[in-house]
User: Fold this.
Amino acid sequence: MRKLFSSKTAVILMVSVMVIVGLITGSNWWANKTNTPPFFQRAVNDITGGISRVIAVPTNAIGTRANSISNLMSTFDENQKLKAKLDGYAQNQVKMQTLEEENKSLKKQLGLKATLTDYETISAVTIARSPTTWQSQLVINKGAKSGLKKGMPVLGDSGLIGRISEVNTVNSKVTLISDTSEDTNRFAITVKGSQGDVNGIITDYDADQKLLIMGQVTESQTINPGDKVVTSGLGGSMPSGILIGKVAKVTTNDYGLSRKIYIQSSSDLSSLSTVLVARTEVGS
Assistant:
Protein backbone atom coordinates (compact mmCIF):
# COMPACT_ATOMS: atom_id res chain seq x y z
CA MET A 1 0.00 0.00 0.00
CA ARG A 2 2.83 2.34 0.94
CA LYS A 3 4.69 1.45 -2.26
CA LEU A 4 1.64 2.15 -4.33
CA PHE A 5 1.28 5.61 -2.74
CA SER A 6 4.89 6.25 -3.33
CA SER A 7 4.58 5.19 -6.95
CA LYS A 8 1.57 7.39 -7.48
CA THR A 9 3.37 10.29 -5.91
CA ALA A 10 6.36 9.72 -8.11
CA VAL A 11 4.17 9.48 -11.17
CA ILE A 12 2.36 12.69 -10.26
CA LEU A 13 5.63 14.52 -9.70
CA MET A 14 7.02 13.28 -12.99
CA VAL A 15 3.87 14.28 -14.84
CA SER A 16 3.90 17.67 -13.13
CA VAL A 17 7.52 18.23 -14.06
CA MET A 18 6.85 17.21 -17.64
CA VAL A 19 3.83 19.53 -17.81
CA ILE A 20 5.82 22.43 -16.37
CA VAL A 21 8.73 21.72 -18.72
CA GLY A 22 6.31 21.48 -21.58
CA LEU A 23 4.64 24.74 -20.65
CA ILE A 24 7.98 26.47 -20.33
CA THR A 25 9.21 24.98 -23.59
CA GLY A 26 5.99 25.85 -25.35
CA SER A 27 5.99 29.33 -23.87
CA ASN A 28 9.54 29.93 -25.01
CA TRP A 29 8.71 28.55 -28.46
CA TRP A 30 5.66 30.80 -28.68
CA ALA A 31 7.63 33.77 -27.36
CA ASN A 32 10.33 33.26 -29.97
CA LYS A 33 7.72 32.90 -32.66
CA THR A 34 5.67 35.95 -31.68
CA ASN A 35 8.51 38.11 -30.23
CA THR A 36 6.69 38.42 -26.91
CA PRO A 37 7.96 37.47 -23.42
CA PRO A 38 7.16 33.97 -22.15
CA PHE A 39 3.87 33.52 -20.29
CA PHE A 40 5.46 33.09 -16.90
CA GLN A 41 7.74 36.06 -17.39
CA ARG A 42 4.77 38.17 -18.43
CA ALA A 43 2.82 37.05 -15.40
CA VAL A 44 5.69 37.93 -13.09
CA ASN A 45 6.22 41.26 -14.90
CA ASP A 46 2.54 42.13 -14.62
CA ILE A 47 2.47 41.34 -10.91
CA THR A 48 5.69 43.30 -10.32
CA GLY A 49 4.44 46.24 -12.38
CA GLY A 50 1.17 46.32 -10.46
CA ILE A 51 2.97 46.39 -7.15
CA SER A 52 5.30 49.12 -8.45
CA ARG A 53 2.34 51.26 -9.54
CA VAL A 54 0.69 50.89 -6.15
CA ILE A 55 3.90 51.93 -4.42
CA ALA A 56 4.62 54.74 -6.93
CA VAL A 57 1.32 56.60 -6.37
CA PRO A 58 2.09 57.94 -2.86
CA THR A 59 5.78 58.22 -3.67
CA ASN A 60 5.09 60.38 -6.75
CA ALA A 61 2.62 62.48 -4.78
CA ILE A 62 5.21 63.13 -2.08
CA GLY A 63 7.86 63.89 -4.70
CA THR A 64 5.55 66.28 -6.56
CA ARG A 65 4.66 68.07 -3.32
CA ALA A 66 8.34 68.31 -2.39
CA ASN A 67 9.20 69.69 -5.84
CA SER A 68 6.38 72.22 -5.60
CA ILE A 69 7.58 73.42 -2.20
CA SER A 70 11.16 73.55 -3.43
CA ASN A 71 10.11 75.52 -6.53
CA LEU A 72 8.06 77.90 -4.37
CA MET A 73 10.99 78.53 -2.04
CA SER A 74 13.30 79.07 -5.00
CA THR A 75 10.84 81.52 -6.54
CA PHE A 76 10.54 83.39 -3.21
CA ASP A 77 14.33 83.64 -2.85
CA GLU A 78 14.68 84.81 -6.44
CA ASN A 79 11.92 87.37 -5.91
CA GLN A 80 13.65 88.74 -2.81
CA LYS A 81 16.94 89.00 -4.69
CA LEU A 82 15.27 90.80 -7.60
CA LYS A 83 13.59 93.24 -5.21
CA ALA A 84 16.92 93.95 -3.56
CA LYS A 85 18.48 94.55 -6.98
CA LEU A 86 15.65 96.89 -7.97
CA ASP A 87 16.09 98.85 -4.75
CA GLY A 88 19.79 99.09 -5.49
CA TYR A 89 19.09 100.23 -9.05
CA ALA A 90 16.67 102.91 -7.80
CA GLN A 91 19.23 104.22 -5.32
CA ASN A 92 21.95 104.22 -7.95
CA GLN A 93 19.66 106.03 -10.37
CA VAL A 94 19.01 108.78 -7.83
CA LYS A 95 22.74 109.07 -7.17
CA MET A 96 23.45 109.21 -10.90
CA GLN A 97 20.86 111.94 -11.44
CA THR A 98 22.30 113.97 -8.57
CA LEU A 99 25.84 113.55 -9.90
CA GLU A 100 24.72 114.48 -13.42
CA GLU A 101 23.07 117.68 -12.15
CA GLU A 102 26.16 118.61 -10.13
CA ASN A 103 28.36 117.78 -13.12
CA LYS A 104 26.32 120.03 -15.42
CA SER A 105 26.49 122.86 -12.90
CA LEU A 106 30.26 122.48 -12.46
CA LYS A 107 30.79 122.32 -16.22
CA LYS A 108 28.87 125.56 -16.67
CA GLN A 109 30.91 127.14 -13.90
CA LEU A 110 34.15 126.05 -15.54
CA GLY A 111 32.98 127.67 -18.77
CA LEU A 112 32.17 130.85 -16.89
CA LYS A 113 35.42 130.72 -14.96
CA ALA A 114 37.36 130.82 -18.21
CA THR A 115 35.88 134.27 -18.94
CA LEU A 116 36.85 135.73 -15.55
CA THR A 117 40.46 136.33 -16.48
CA ASP A 118 40.78 139.32 -14.16
CA TYR A 119 39.73 137.42 -11.06
CA GLU A 120 40.75 134.45 -9.00
CA THR A 121 37.71 132.30 -8.29
CA ILE A 122 36.96 130.03 -5.33
CA SER A 123 34.43 127.22 -5.53
CA ALA A 124 31.98 126.89 -2.64
CA VAL A 125 28.97 124.81 -1.69
CA THR A 126 25.65 126.07 -0.31
CA ILE A 127 25.24 124.74 3.23
CA ALA A 128 22.15 126.65 4.38
CA ARG A 129 19.16 128.33 2.74
CA SER A 130 16.08 129.10 4.78
CA PRO A 131 12.60 128.96 3.21
CA THR A 132 11.77 132.32 4.85
CA THR A 133 14.77 134.01 3.18
CA TRP A 134 14.94 131.78 0.10
CA GLN A 135 15.05 134.61 -2.45
CA SER A 136 17.25 136.93 -0.41
CA GLN A 137 20.23 135.01 1.01
CA LEU A 138 22.12 131.76 1.50
CA VAL A 139 25.20 130.50 3.38
CA ILE A 140 28.27 128.93 1.73
CA ASN A 141 31.03 126.76 3.21
CA LYS A 142 33.95 129.17 2.59
CA GLY A 143 34.98 132.15 4.70
CA ALA A 144 37.90 134.30 5.81
CA LYS A 145 40.11 131.22 6.06
CA SER A 146 39.72 130.80 2.28
CA GLY A 147 40.42 134.49 1.60
CA LEU A 148 36.83 135.69 1.18
CA LYS A 149 35.93 139.28 1.97
CA LYS A 150 32.72 141.25 2.23
CA GLY A 151 31.48 142.62 -1.10
CA MET A 152 33.05 139.95 -3.33
CA PRO A 153 30.83 138.87 -6.27
CA VAL A 154 29.24 135.41 -6.12
CA LEU A 155 28.39 133.60 -9.34
CA GLY A 156 26.16 130.67 -10.21
CA ASP A 157 26.49 128.39 -13.22
CA SER A 158 26.20 131.20 -15.78
CA GLY A 159 26.40 134.61 -14.12
CA LEU A 160 26.16 136.82 -11.04
CA ILE A 161 23.79 135.64 -8.30
CA GLY A 162 24.82 137.89 -5.41
CA ARG A 163 27.61 139.25 -3.22
CA ILE A 164 29.31 138.31 0.06
CA SER A 165 27.54 140.28 2.80
CA GLU A 166 28.98 138.64 5.93
CA VAL A 167 32.24 136.73 6.40
CA ASN A 168 32.97 134.21 9.16
CA THR A 169 36.01 132.00 9.61
CA VAL A 170 34.77 128.97 7.65
CA ASN A 171 31.48 130.17 6.11
CA SER A 172 29.93 133.28 4.60
CA LYS A 173 26.52 134.78 3.99
CA VAL A 174 25.56 135.69 0.43
CA THR A 175 22.99 138.37 -0.39
CA LEU A 176 21.23 137.42 -3.63
CA ILE A 177 20.41 139.79 -6.49
CA SER A 178 16.75 138.89 -5.92
CA ASP A 179 16.81 140.37 -2.40
CA THR A 180 14.00 142.97 -2.14
CA SER A 181 14.47 144.09 1.48
CA GLU A 182 14.58 147.86 2.10
CA ASP A 183 18.04 147.93 3.67
CA THR A 184 19.81 145.91 1.01
CA ASN A 185 22.51 147.49 -1.12
CA ARG A 186 21.00 147.46 -4.60
CA PHE A 187 22.92 145.95 -7.49
CA ALA A 188 23.95 148.49 -10.14
CA ILE A 189 23.44 147.12 -13.65
CA THR A 190 23.71 148.09 -17.31
CA VAL A 191 21.47 147.00 -20.18
CA LYS A 192 23.51 146.72 -23.38
CA GLY A 193 20.91 148.09 -25.81
CA SER A 194 21.27 148.45 -29.56
CA GLN A 195 21.18 152.26 -29.27
CA GLY A 196 23.45 152.50 -26.25
CA ASP A 197 23.79 151.43 -22.65
CA VAL A 198 21.05 152.03 -20.08
CA ASN A 199 22.18 152.18 -16.44
CA GLY A 200 20.05 151.49 -13.40
CA ILE A 201 19.64 149.25 -10.38
CA ILE A 202 17.72 146.08 -9.57
CA THR A 203 14.69 147.42 -7.70
CA ASP A 204 12.47 144.35 -7.32
CA TYR A 205 11.96 140.66 -8.01
CA ASP A 206 8.87 138.97 -9.43
CA ALA A 207 8.83 135.60 -7.63
CA ASP A 208 5.95 134.25 -9.73
CA GLN A 209 7.68 134.89 -13.04
CA LYS A 210 11.18 134.47 -11.54
CA LEU A 211 12.28 137.75 -13.13
CA LEU A 212 14.49 140.53 -11.81
CA ILE A 213 13.10 144.06 -12.28
CA MET A 214 14.97 147.22 -13.19
CA GLY A 215 12.49 149.99 -12.42
CA GLN A 216 12.17 153.75 -12.94
CA VAL A 217 14.01 153.74 -16.29
CA THR A 218 13.58 157.14 -17.92
CA GLU A 219 16.18 156.93 -20.68
CA SER A 220 14.72 156.83 -24.17
CA GLN A 221 17.10 154.33 -25.74
CA THR A 222 15.43 151.33 -27.33
CA ILE A 223 15.59 148.19 -25.22
CA ASN A 224 14.59 144.87 -26.71
CA PRO A 225 14.02 141.38 -25.30
CA GLY A 226 17.27 139.45 -25.47
CA ASP A 227 19.54 142.45 -24.75
CA LYS A 228 22.37 141.49 -22.41
CA VAL A 229 22.43 142.77 -18.82
CA VAL A 230 25.73 143.09 -16.89
CA THR A 231 27.04 144.77 -13.75
CA SER A 232 27.79 148.46 -14.32
CA GLY A 233 30.54 148.84 -11.71
CA LEU A 234 29.01 152.12 -10.52
CA GLY A 235 29.37 152.73 -6.81
CA GLY A 236 32.64 150.83 -6.64
CA SER A 237 31.23 147.85 -4.73
CA MET A 238 31.02 145.50 -7.71
CA PRO A 239 33.29 145.09 -10.76
CA SER A 240 31.77 145.96 -14.13
CA GLY A 241 30.98 143.60 -16.95
CA ILE A 242 29.85 140.53 -14.99
CA LEU A 243 26.93 138.87 -16.74
CA ILE A 244 23.58 138.96 -14.94
CA GLY A 245 21.14 137.84 -17.62
CA LYS A 246 19.08 139.17 -20.51
CA VAL A 247 16.01 141.32 -20.99
CA ALA A 248 12.80 139.28 -20.91
CA LYS A 249 10.28 142.08 -21.52
CA VAL A 250 9.78 145.85 -21.17
CA THR A 251 6.70 147.61 -19.81
CA THR A 252 5.77 151.29 -19.29
CA ASN A 253 3.69 152.96 -16.60
CA ASP A 254 0.24 154.42 -17.29
CA TYR A 255 1.66 157.79 -18.25
CA GLY A 256 4.47 156.43 -20.41
CA LEU A 257 7.06 158.40 -18.44
CA SER A 258 9.10 155.48 -17.16
CA ARG A 259 9.68 151.85 -17.95
CA LYS A 260 10.18 148.59 -16.13
CA ILE A 261 12.69 146.17 -17.55
CA TYR A 262 12.15 142.54 -16.63
CA ILE A 263 15.36 140.50 -16.61
CA GLN A 264 15.79 136.76 -16.89
CA SER A 265 18.74 135.73 -14.70
CA SER A 266 21.34 133.67 -16.53
CA SER A 267 21.67 131.44 -13.44
CA ASP A 268 18.80 129.53 -11.87
CA LEU A 269 18.33 131.38 -8.57
CA SER A 270 16.09 128.62 -7.20
CA SER A 271 18.82 125.97 -7.50
CA LEU A 272 22.21 127.09 -6.20
CA SER A 273 24.01 124.03 -4.82
CA THR A 274 27.48 125.19 -5.90
CA VAL A 275 28.79 128.71 -6.53
CA LEU A 276 31.96 130.60 -7.45
CA VAL A 277 33.29 133.55 -5.47
CA ALA A 278 35.33 136.05 -7.51
CA ARG A 279 38.25 137.41 -5.51
CA THR A 280 38.56 140.84 -7.04
CA GLU A 281 41.75 141.49 -5.12
CA VAL A 282 44.05 138.71 -6.32
CA GLY A 283 46.49 137.55 -3.70
CA SER A 284 44.62 139.17 -0.81
Q: What stands out?
A: The first helix runs from residue 2 to 34. The chain has a mean pLDDT of 78.
